[in-house]
Amino acid sequence: MSSFGASMSPGARRAMLTVFAMTATIMQALDTTIANVALPYMQGSLSAAQDQISWVLTSYIVAAAVMTAPVGWLSDRFGRKKLFIVCVAGFTVASLLCALSQNIEQIVLFRLMQGMCGAALVPLSQAVMLDAYPIEQRGQAMGIWGVGVMLGPIMGPTLGGFLTENYSWHWVFLVNLPVGILTVVGLLAFMDETRQQSHLRFDWFGFLALGVGIGAMQLMLDRGEQLGWFDSPEIVAELIIAIVGFYYFFAHSFTTPEPFLRFVIFRDRNFLIGCFFMMIMGLMLFSSMALAAPFMQNVLGYPIMTTGWLLASRGVGTLVGMAMIGRLLRMVEARYLILVGLTLTAITMYQMTGFTDDTSGREIVICGLVQGLGMGFVFIPLSTVAFLSLPSHLRTDGTGMLTLVRNVASSAGISVVIANLTSKTTVFYSQLAEHISPFNDALQAPDVTRWLDLATDQGRALADQMLTIQASIMAYANDFMLLTAICVLSIPFVIAIGSTASLRGKKVAVEVME
Predict the structure, then answer these.
(1) Which CATH architecture has domain 264-514?
(2) Statement: residue 512 has pLDDT above 50
(3) Which run of H or of E encompasses 20?
(4) Which of 120, 222, 230, 265 is the most exposed place for a label (fewest CB within 10 A)?
């Protein structure tokens, strides 16, 4: 701790630490989506093929997923402050290198580096926030922390589109530089170091087995839809490699005395149920975003900036929910708040099954606000419940595992809904096309043939366009119904959540930070 940080009051130091933990969270969460809209611009600038440019996203996801698991061990071995600062600095440097890339090989390499460093930012920031606040204030602390996690994916497409359209795709990465530098300085000044456990030895076999399993699974999920899933030898090979990797990881971890991922955290019922609902929320948040953005652009015809602003309505709803939840946790059991949040999420997902090409922007905004409110009601009580009874020495392992569960569920969910969207669009198009024939009396009516004459090229092109739009709308509705069913089926598991009575009716205590 620097002399400047040590001279401040405990409350002021905690507030400043919160600010810089939040900037790290927002920076990492933002980068999960900010590059998406810039991909077409990168492809032309870097002279990359369509399948090559997708590795700009895939490399980041794979590296982040693989490196999330050992965060707890690294924090214990080298100290949380040292690891946090190294990761933020590495993420910032990698962002600069991404912006300076001259070809596809360079940017994929630097995105791998960015993902490796960024993997620790969210779990470390959450662990810092949990340790900085007493138990009765953790609801509010998780509300503040959750703003960064939830707003990043919402702001990413809008900010990425703005920077790319008005400047260049390089600024998608350069925007991280001032934030990263400020965060490093802030952590140096205000964060305390944890005790380093130098006796710990790294479980290389377990790490490599898990890394191979996660990496192969991520590649399979990311490339499956493009290659035709299990019709492709590559996808089959990646599935086999993933199964073998996970088998050896679990077999090794349960038989070695010091695995780098401690399964003792799953003996805590609250943490286990927290992982389950974190998986559901990760799937709901990112899968619905992956569907909503192309629906607005391809079906409703909105430009990228308008789409970003409409998607931001869900972020506003989430902010409102998080602003309310800190105080509500002191008066209401967390499980009841989660129940309300899941119910609102399920209702709005079902409402989205009725979206068509005539859906107004006003209806989308209202649905997004309510859906964001529901997610805010789930996310913060869930984070509080998961760590309610988990020992402090397992907290970093827990935050890393929650992040890993959310990432894997998000990736799997996106792959499933996009693959389902593609296949169902083809199926629905074929079903609708069966009714387009000269033998359909409705198509022979004078009022129809006046503008849809199948005997002309223009009429057939118009019919094809109409069928494509209608098939897409039906496919999107099918996906939103799938998400609705998953959300509804998860609701009964709320009864497994333990009581949070210890958070209610307590006066706020000031914790002196060492």
Answers:
(1) Up-down Bundle (1.20)
(2) no
(3) helix 10-31
(4) 230
Q: Pull the structure tokens for residue 457.
A: 């090229």
Q: Which CATH architecture has domain 1-198?
A: Up-down Bundle (1.20)
* C-alpha to C-alpha distance for 461 and 420, rounded to whole angstroms: 26
Residue spans per domain, the chain = 1-198, 203-259, 264-514
The residues, any chain, with a CB within 8 Å of residue 123's CB and separated by 6 or more, are: 68, 71, 72, 396, 399, 400, 402, 403
User: Which helix (H) or strand (E) element contains residue 221?
Assistant: helix 204-227
Helices (H), ranges, 228-360: 233-253, 269-294, 304-328, 334-352
Task: Give the tokens for residue 459.
Answer: 């009429």
Is 329 strand, coil or helix? coil
Among 278, 372, 267, 388, residue whose Cα is nearest residue 333: 388
Residue 426 has which token pair?
């083809």
Q: What secondary structure letter does DSSP report for 296? A: I
338 has a pLDDT exceeding 80? yes
b or e along 335-369 (b: 16 or more beta carbons within 10 Å of the residue's beta carbon)? Answer: bebbbbbbbbbbbbbbbbbebeeebeeeebbebbb
- Counting every residue written for the chain, the total comes to 514
DSSP secondary structure code for residue 506 in this structure? P
As a whole number of angstroms, the distance between CA 213 and CA 497 comes to 30
Name the pTM for this structure.
0.74
* Same fold yes or no, 1-198 and 264-514: yes
**Identity of the residue numbered 139:** G
| pLDDT-based confidence at residue 287 (cuts at 50, 70, 90) | confident
How far apart, in whole angstroms, are the C-alpha atoms of residue 93 and residue 35? 17
The mean pLDDT value for 238-246 works out to 93
- C-alpha 270/C-alpha 265 separation (Å) is 10
